[in-house]
Amino acid sequence: MERARAFAKRLGAGLGIIDKRRESDKKNVAKVMHIIGDVAGRDVLIVDDIVDTAGTLVEATEALLRAGARRVFAGVTHPVLSGQAMQRLAASHLQELVVTDTIPLRDKAVCWPHLRVLSVAHLLGEAIKRIHCNESVSSLFI
């Protein structure tokens, strides 16, 4: 919650939370339970660390739209995009998925027109340089 609040503050945006539950006996399966916050009439950005099968991301997108969100975008660090992920995303109402190049994209993902890849090369290079020079790395994220 603390990280989510800080992120929303830096964006100058409101904060909403998607309450999800994972079924303990099923890997990569989560169910959206509640949306906490008012998303009606707003553009929504989902922020997550990883997208694997895209099931949760697609379900969250649909739940947000049912709650009145105008459009839904997602920013995810690691785009695993395994199994049926690209089929799920292509059939979803997600406007755009922004990911980083921390892992190679699968061929199917490269061709999806709603996917944008941002490079972290400069950030990693700067972090390595700062470590080598005994400088602050945390100041990169302020």
Please work out how many helical segments DSSP would assign.
5
| Widest sheet, order of strands | 3-4-5-6
Molecular shape: globular
Largest sheet: 4 strands, parallel
Cα Rg? 17 Å
Contiguous runs where pLDDT drops below 50 for at least 5 residues: none
User: Helix content range of the residues, please?
Assistant: 25-40%
Listing every helix as H and every strand as E from the N terminus to the C terminus, the arrangement reads: HEEEHEHEHEH
Average of pLDDT: 91
Q: Pairing-aware structural class of the strands and helices? A: alpha/beta
Percent of residues in β-strands: 25-35%
First-residue to last-residue Cα separation? 18 Å
Textual characterization of the structure:
This protein has 142 residues and is of the alpha/beta class. It contains five helices and six strands. The strands form two sheets. It has a four-stranded parallel beta sheet with strand order 3-4-5-6. A two-stranded antiparallel sheet has the order 1-2. Strand 3 (43-51), helix 2 and strand 4 form a beta-alpha-beta unit. The model has no long low-confidence stretch (mean pLDDT 91).
